[in-house]
Every structure is written in C-alpha cells, then in structure tokens.
Amino acid sequence: MNIYKKILFLALVLAAAASCRSQFDMILNSNDVDSKYTAAFDYFNRGKFEKASKLFESLTVQAKGFPKEDTVQYYWGLSNYRNKDYYTAETNFANFVNDFPLSPFSEDARFLRIDCLYRACFRYELDQKPTYAALAAIGEYLAEYPGNPHEEVCRNMLSDLNERLDHKAFESARLYYKMEDYKAARTAFKNVLKDNSDNIYREKILYYTAMASYRFAAMSVEDKKKERYLTFVDDYLNFVGELPESSYRRQLDVYYKRAQKALGRFSGSDEELMEKNKDFEKEIKKLEKTEKK
C-alpha cells in the first residue's frame, strides 16, 4: 500500500510540475502583450528571474512602439543581472543606454552595466582587456553623472582596477628579474614607471631597478664592469634620494659599498660587507613574512 501511495504522490508532483511548465509556456508563446507584461513582473517580484528574463526578452520584440518599451528593455537586463548572468545583462544594459538615452532608467542602467563589466574583470595574472573596458565606462559615467549616488562605489572600483594594472605591470617586469635577465629587467622596470610614475609598487620597482643593474654589473666581463657599476650607483642614488627610510635601503647600502669597492672608492673589508649583508637578509625575511600575511 505504501508503494502505491508513493507512486501516486510522485505522479501528482510530476503532473503539477508539467502544469506549471505548461502554464509558463502558454504565457511565453502568447501574443497577449498585457498579460505577458503582468506575468513577467509577477515572476520578477517572486524572484523567478530566469523566467522573468525570458518573458521580458519576448516582450522586447512584441512591445515595439509599446508605451513602456523602455521598461521592458530595462527589466530584461535587470532580470538577467539578478539571475547573475552578468555577461548577458551587460549586453542588455549597453543596448538599453544606446536605445533609450533619455529614459528615467538610463542612469541606473549605465551603473549596472559598469557593475557587470567590473565583475567580468580577471585577476591581475590574466588578460586585462576587460579591466580597460570597465575603467573607460566608469570614467564616462562619473563625467556624465557627477555627484551620483554610486560615486563612492565607482571610485572604489577604479582604485581596485588600477591596482590590478599596477600589479600586472610590476609582475611582468619582475619576471625578467626572476629569469636572471637583469638587463631586460632594468629596462622593463624603468618602462613601468615611464608609463605610470604613480604605480603603487613604485618603491619595489625602484628597488628592483637598482638590484637588476647591480647584478648585471657583477655578472659582466671585466672591461664592462666599471660602466655598469656606475649605472647601479645612479640607480642607488635615485632610490635613496626618493626613499631614504625604505626597508630595502640597508641591502642597497651593502651593494653600493661593494660597487664602490669594485670602482676603487671603498676601503672597508669584505668581512664588514658580508656581516652587514647577513643582518639585512634576516630583516628582509621577516619583512617578506609580514607582507604575506
């Protein structure tokens, strides 16, 4: 008897599900614009965003010239946005802004498009084309809607996206350093600051620029060393002139003295240099642990 009850219950559930599907399909395929419009908002208000988006999408074709055509287009995008289909929603909102620039929904649509673009951005290690697209859209939005209620959010987005680009540029240059191509590394680091002198990794970039020039000089053949140590001296003086209190200075001070010794300008002992270098290595390991946290 229990088995029959289970079978009957399952049949009723399936019948109810089929009925629901049938009801939705009937509305979706209907030519009754008013009924479909009402049903679309009913699904939207009940959080059935996937079904709502399908109805609003159907209405965009049927409601051409309809007094609430912009409402239909906007809620099609909003339904996809609420359904976390940000790729489709971004396209919806971009089309909406082009088609209905004077709509009362226009400003919100532009912001929501920006949010979709922001969500589509990748980690700094990956392709940054979406980041540039988001930055451009945010800049245009802030220029056209100064003092808008989303301004703080947009500026936080700008800060985060610019940090990703700074990180990408820094790590791309540091890759040469890790590969021990110190000549290319120095050029790459200098180009990073040439492109963006306000890079948030400026201290590290200046540090690695000096380190790259030192290591390049140390690895050079004898008749090239003097010229290349002088390049390091320039990079060192540039670093300490700008960042005299930097935690990296102690190591660079050691290498500066080594360079001076190689140039015949330092009278200290090798033991003194080695001792200072050991002290720095202990400090830099502590610093690296702190940065990882």
Structure description:
The protein is mostly helical. The chain contains 13 helices and no strands. The chain is rod-shaped and about 95 Å long.
CATH architecture identity of the domain at 181-293: Alpha Horseshoe
**Number of separate strands:** 0
Low-confidence stretches: 9-14
Mean pLDDT: 84
Q: Please trace the helix and strand order, writing H or E for each element.
A: HHHHHHHHHHHHH
The secondary-structure class comes to: mainly alpha
User: What's the gyration radius in Å?
Assistant: 31 Å
Fraction of helical residues? over 70%
Instruction: State the distance separating the first and last CA atoms.
Output: 63 Å
Provide the CATH topology of the domain at 181-293: Serine Threonine Protein Phosphatase 5, Tetratricopeptide repeat
The first-level CATH class name of the domain at 181-293: Mainly Alpha
**Secondary structure tally, helices:** 13
Global morphology: rod-shaped
- Note the beta-strand portion: under 5%
Largest beta-sheet characterization: none
- Name given to the CATH homologous superfamily of the domain at 181-293: Tetratricopeptide repeat domain
